[in-house]
From TrEMBL:
A Pfam family of this chain: CBM_14
Keyword annotations: Chitin-binding, Disulfide bond, Glycoprotein, Repeat, Signal
GO cellular component, one term: extracellular region
SMART domains assigned: ChtBD2
Name listed for the protein in its UniProt record: Chondroitin proteoglycan-2
Gene Ontology terms for molecular function: chitin binding
Gene3D superfamilies for the chain: Chitin binding domain
Naturally occurring in which organism (per UniProt): Ooceraea biroi (Clonal raider ant)
Domain Chitin-binding type-2, first and last residues per copy: 61-119, 129-187, 192-256
Amino acid sequence: MTREIFGEYHHQYFRDVIPDIGHTPSQERALNQNQRFSNNLFDNFLNRGQQQVSLPKRAASASCPERNGRYPVPNQCDAYIECIDGVAEEKLCPEGLFYNPEARFNYPCGYPIDVDCTGRPNLQPANPSEDCPHQYGYFKIGDHQRCGQFMNCVDGRGYVFDCPEGLAFSPETYRCDWPDQVPDCDAEAFLGFRCPETVKNSFFLDVENRLYRSNTDCHHYYICVNGRPRLQNCGIGNAFNELIDACDAAENVTGW
């Protein structure tokens, strides 16, 4: 249960913040840049010997079901009992993290989105800092019109990250997602585009997904999914061509 194991958990979790939804090249570059920065700041934090991630010890209140293992504390989601050679010791996760009996890594504490606290409703008191509502976690920044940033809190220090272009951070899933999939994000205000109403025709079925060029950048276009916009980028050297309703070499696109 070392700080290196917690670092491995954090690095894997940050990779999972961005779902695999078919990133454009610019989205991939933003993701890679954010991931490198997150990993570097967390590695630097872990390497500061005087501030290693540690679990405060508490007096044991239960015996060990087995000689070695970790077990949840009844009624408390961020505490657990660690048994070593039959000796029980009750421990607390760092504030903002919960004990996860199903942890994928050897480190036993995880982010709330990964932990089922059913039957363990109690938590240690929140320990907010100037930057963060909790010592550890991922938190939304901005309002319903500015949905594209989130804060990663590590030991009470907040670090701001941008979701890849066109994506919004969901506090419900701890993921960057299409803005129309984030309940508290106004996709139209966030992207600056509203899908035109489709004209119903009794002879043709309605088309759910429609493409529209951006009026501000020839490299961008919008796909309207069930009437809600999603921003796309054709990438370097390409532009959206309305004649073929697809990305094309920039020299083939006129009207700009």
